[in-house]
Design a protein that fits this description.
Elements: H1 21-28, E1 32-36, E2 39-42, H2 44-63, E3 67-68, E4 74-76, H3 77-83, H4 85-89, E5 94-97, E6 103-106, H5 111-121, E7 130-139, E8 154-164, H6 167-187, E9 193-196, E10 206-213, E11 219-224, E12 230-232, E13 248-263, H7 265-269, E14 273-275, E15 281-283, E16 285-292, H8 293-303, E17 305-306, E18 309-310, E19 321-325, H9 331-346, E20 351-353, H10 360-370, E21 374-378, H11 380-385, E22 387-392, E23 398-402, H12 406-414
Parallel strand pairs: 3-7, 19-20, 19-21
Antiparallel strand pairs: 1-2, 4-6, 5-6, 7-8, 8-16, 9-10, 10-13, 11-12, 11-13, 13-16, 14-15, 17-18, 21-22, 22-23
Helix pairs in contact: 1-8, 2-6, 2-8, 9-12
The protein binds one RNA strand of 78 nucleotides through residues 9, 11-19, 34, 36-37, 92, 108-109, 138, 140, 142-144, 146, 150-151, 155-159, 200-201, 209-210, 218-219, 254-258, 290-296, 324, 326-327, 329-330, 358-368, 377, 379-381, 389.
RNA sequence: CGGGGAGUAGCGCAGCUUGGCUAGCGCGUUUGGUUCGGGACCAAAAGGUCGUGGGUUCAAAUCCCACCUCCCCGACCA
């Protein structure tokens, strides 16, 4: 991919209104654009990151045996009345009437829809267990949208729902999901913690929250400096670690995932029943598992940036490597840059070539800002000594490499 | 919704207190030239319903009223 053709819209200054690090950097690097408060467009660079994160989520969900599907955003209020959550959701739910006078909402979450679906198909113990998930846009009329995509009125969530014949089955899938979540957040390059949590509006017996320590986090957690044990803020009065009896550090954190054992809360009201081996009617045990996919982008940036810009963890970076020819009108330099771009692309890497006729300084600044993990500079040393420069965005370390051998870079970029 | 702040060119801002005639500056953009390894320089140019509507006045970005929008703190959440 060539920079000049890729709609990358970097800015020297971020709008004054943006305060959190992730929001400022997302605006400056041209990942998102606000349409109205709490509603953002993902520009190509941001969308690439989103796609990478979605991909990680998909892979790990599929590994648990969950199957992807897509549920509608348009839902009937009637369905919500059946579970009593119509009132509970209140004004957070975006409601309207269509031309036929049907009372509808834009789905803020999908327990009702998925349960209705399951009720229609689950008949026998042989139909169980199964887990379904989707990656889809949710709508919530937030009281106060905040920090860009951290709290927005329209956001992308991965929501999974498990259906089991008994609590034993539910416990097993719950633990599987918990493990999958840990893998997902690790792959996203996040330092995260998980705590037992209130189940809130979703309901159910037990839930775990996954939180990412971040300056702009809206939650508070306490983490033991010795053993790493984490407690939520609601476990008030805790001044020291119950294990080590040492002070716990107070951290702001951002909730990025939440998993719930729902039990029969929804399956009972919406009638997800099956006949067991003895022909007795039983109620399905459900679990639900959410990840704020779009919020993850902000969380990753909160934890991975410096004064110059974003530092993408490898797995979620919009590109694997950036090639910077310092002077595009120098044929020697340009030809080598193109050769590298083509060869590394052929090897399956996402390669961005900064083909702009800009001064090197401008390109380096943009390179740091957009945070592509690896940079190959083709400059005067190539023209004079046949050497290229390989720079790691995170460590800042620079390695000089004898050029002319694109294959040699492959290992470096992948390392 | 309660409390605080702000809307002037794509972005960042000045001008408003003390109305005044063609509304400024920096960045960015366009054209030409010189530069060329960490956000270059010179010259020329394009780009603005001063958030919207109403009022006061000879005259409103500036004063008054209403409304809209955005940001920050609080309650809520992925």
């Amino acid at each position: 991919m060539y920079w000049s053709r890729s709609f990358i819209t970097t800015l020297k200054e971020a709008p004054e209104a943006a305060e959190s690090a992730s929001h400022r950097l997302m605006l400056r690097s041209g990942m998102v654009r606000m349409l109205i408060s709490g509603v953002y467009s993902y520009l190509p660079l941001g969308y690439r990151v989103l796609a990478r994160i979605e991909n990680i989520v998909r892979q790990e969900m599929n590994k648990t045996g969950a199957q992807e599907l897509l549920l509608p955003s348009l839902q009937s209020i009637e369905l919500w009345q059946k579970t009593g959550r119509d009132e509970l959701m209140g004004e957070t739910m975006i409601r309207f009437q269509d031309r036929r006078g049907r009372k509808l909402c834009l789905g803020p979450t999908h327990e009702e829809v998925i349960t209705e679906l399951a009720a229609a198909y689950v008949k026998s113990w042989r139909d169980l267990p199964f887990t379904l998930y989707q990656i889809q846009t949710k709508f919530r009329d937030e009281l106060r949208p905040r920090f860009g995509v951290v709290r927005s009125c329209e956001f992308i969530m991965k929501d999974a729902y498990s259906f089991d014949r008994d609590l034993d089955g539910l416990n097993k899938i719950y633990e599987k999901m918990r493990a999958a979540y840990e893998t997902i957040f690790k792959r996203c390059g996040l330092d995260f913690v998980s705590i037992k949590a209130d189940s809130g509006v979703i309901g159910g017996d037990l839930s775990h929250e996954f939180l990412v320590p971040a300056e702009s986090g809206e939650d508070i957690v306490f983490r033991c400096k010795i053993c790493g044990m984490v407690l939520g803020a609601h476990e008030a009065g805790i001044e020291e670690c119950p294990h080590c009896h040492k002070d716990m550090g107070k951290l702001n954190a951002l909730e990025v995932g939440h998993i719930f054992k729902l039990g029969d809360k929804y399956s009972k009201t919406l009638g997800v029943k099956f006949l067991d081996e003895e022909g007795r009617q039983q109620i399905v045990q459900m679990g639900c598992y959410g990840i704020g996919v779009s919020r993850l982008i902000a969380a990753v940036i909160e934890q991975n940036h410096d004064e110059n810009g974003i530092i993408w963890p490898k797995e979620v970076a919009p590109f694997d490597v950036l090639i910077v020819p310092v002077n595009v009108s120098d044929k020697l330099i340009w030809d080598e840059a193109v050769k590298l771009h083509d060869e590394l692309s052929r090897q399956g890497l996402d390669v961005l070539l900064d083909d702009r006729d800009e001064r090197a300084g401008v390109k380096f600044k943009d390179a740091d800002l957009t945070g592509i993990p690896r940079r190959i500079t083709v400059g005067t040393k190539w023209a004079k000594e046949g050497k290229l420069e390989f720079k790691d965005r995170r460590t800042g370390s620079v390695t000089e490499i004898q050029g002319g051998d694109p294959a040699g870079f492959l290992a470096l970029v992948r390392s």
